[in-house]
Amino acid sequence: MRFRILGPVSYEIEGQLHSIRGSRQRTLLAALLVSDGRPVPAEQLYTELWGETPPATANNSLQAHIYRLRGTLQRLPVGAGKGPQVTTRASGYALEHDWDNLDMTLFRSRIAESRRVVDKDPRKAYALLDQALSLWRGSPLQDVPAGPMCQSVALQLDEEHMTALEDKLWLSIGCEDPTHVIGELKRMSSVHPWRERITEMLMLALYRCGRQAEAIEAYNSARRRLVDELGMEPSTELRQRFRDILNQAPSLREFHPARY
Q: Worst-scoring range by mean pLDDT, 26-35, 101-110, 137-146?
């Protein structure tokens, strides 16, 4: 059995996804999952469940939700062995679970492994990134109210997802035909206009496909957006990439996989 939070909060058994009924139970489970086994104080759970103004009966209500969640977890068909359990600690509540069976853990471990092997085997690093990204089914914790702890983790995961996608596209430029990623880079450049790394990769992919004029225009368009909307110039790195393209620098044909 695997818990999933990279999208709606759910669990997976034999390839089938199952939702967690009840908004409070989902929120409570999500808070315990993102804590990665560390106890979560009751006061923090109040805020996750009810916001900054929990009811006067918050403690009793939390106990009731803990009781229901324990019952839900006990009914999960986990097969042989010990299933997930909510335990009470002096410092709060914790979820006992095989954390390798949480999609967030798998995502992060595959990203870390990709970075370990990228110098020696960029194609394996690419495959690991692809596996990591395939775990996503939408915005993380998307069906959970935005309590401060869950919201913070969701924002962090969104950034990790974006970085992993950029890393995969970078390896695609070096390991595959860069023509195949130009369309995706153009789309991402439109959706994320302030991420200069995407602009830089788009410029490089276009240049390597013999489209120097388009690479120059990609830079000029990005610069106009920055100047007109933010009142700032592109970074030193992006300006250097632009000069390299203007001068057709030989280094543009080199590939450094670990330039994550």
A: 137-146
Which residues, at least 6 apart from 86, have a Cβ–Cβ distance to it below 8 Å? 32, 66, 69, 70, 73, 93, 94, 95, 96
150: amino acid identity, one letter: C
Angle between helices 196-208 and 236-246 (to 10 degrees): 10
Architecture of domain 2-98: Orthogonal Bundle (1.10)
Dig out the tokens for 107 from the structure: 């995502």
The predicted-structure confidence for 56-115, as pLDDT tens digits, reads as follows 999 999 999 999 999 999 888 766 557 899 999 888 999 998 889 999 999 999 999 999
Residue with tokens 């009924």: 21
In angstroms, how far is the first alpha carbon of the chain from the final one? 33
Question: Domain residues of the chain, as ranges?
Answer: 2-98, 103-253
Q: Which fold has domain 103-253?
A: 1.25.40
Structure tokens at 255: 């590939």
Structure tokens at 47: 């805020």
Predicted structure pTM score: 0.90
Contact 194, 161 (CB under 8 A): no
